[in-house]
Each structure stands twice: as structure tokens, then as C-alpha cells.
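Appendix B. One record, verbatim.
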Amino acid sequence: MSSPEIASLSWGQMKVQGSTKTYKDCKVWPGGSRAWDWRETGTEVPPSTVEYLKKQGIDVRVLQTEQAVKEYNALVAQGVRVGGVFHSTC
């Protein structure tokens, strides 16, 4: 399963390849996407989460949204299985 490309990003709106929904904030992973309510977890990535993922051999990048989408889509274009959590108003 490949990761879906983020087709568009503007303030408060994101579209993901393969989904008919327009998201404000979203989670994407190989094979899918869904809305993300940042109030569930906050918008900051706790250092303990980053450490845990790195210990699992997962490359972690915490970036401003526009840069994160560019990097994510570049990895998708290379065929890398990648996931992300995106907040379109930051």
C-alpha cells in the first residue's frame, strides 16, 4: 500500500489523494487518511513520542505545515511509505 499524496493545502483546508473529503487537519498513512481533532492530543509533539518512534527505527520530522507537506509529498513521490499528522492553520 502506498501513502496518499496531499493534493492541496490552504489555510484551514487540505485535500488528500483518494479522499473526497476536505480536511481542516488530518492524519495520513499508507493506504488512507482521516480527520484529526488536534484537541485529542494537542499540536505539540511530546519529546517522549519522538524518542519512542526513533527507538522503533522510524524517522521523525517535526516541521511547520507547508514544509512538512512538501517533504511528505517528496517522500511519497519516491515511493517511501510515510505517514503524517497535519494541522492546516499553523
